[in-house]
Specification:
This protein is of the alpha+beta class and about 120 residues long. The protein has helices at about 5-25, 60-70, 70-80, 100-115, and strands at about 30-40, 45-55, 90-95. The chain has a three-stranded mixed sheet.
Length: about 120
């Protein structure tokens, strides 16, 4: 269970990273990167960031590009939240494929309904 401070930092990092990704993907037509969840460790040293990427076919490629530019993203995040946080946590990015999972389940359920007809 996260403490109140962790929850506040989670929301702050999520908001600022979302804004950074929005500005970056505005140049790339048809690509949308959403920060779905941020989880900060109790010592506030690491932030696990879960990204939902559309279109999902490019997800792994975009995630690789994001992981390669993690130092730049951490620096830009530090410029935004440097006044609120003493130490900017290390960033670890993960692909959030829960929407693809839900879509797959929905597709399977719909195909079962058609078989019963």
């Amino acid at each position: 269970m996260d403490t109140t401070r962790q929850q506040k930092i989670n929301r702050l990092i999520q908001k600022e990273l979302s804004e950074l990704f929005r500005k970056e993907t505005a140049q790339m037509r048809g690509v949308l990167v959403t920060v779905s969840t941020v989880r900060v460790t109790p010592d506030l040293g690491l932030a696990k960031v879960y990204l939902s990427i559309f279109p999902s076919g490019q997800g792994k490629e975009i995630l690789t590009n994001i992981k390669n530019s993690v130092k730049t993203l951490r620096y830009e995040l530090g410029q935004k939240v440097g006044k609120q946080l003493r130490i900017i946590p290390e960033l670890a990015f993960y692909l959030d494929d829960s929407l693809d999972y839900l879509e797959n389940i929905d597709r399977l359920l719909n195909s079962d309904d058609k078989k019963e007809d």
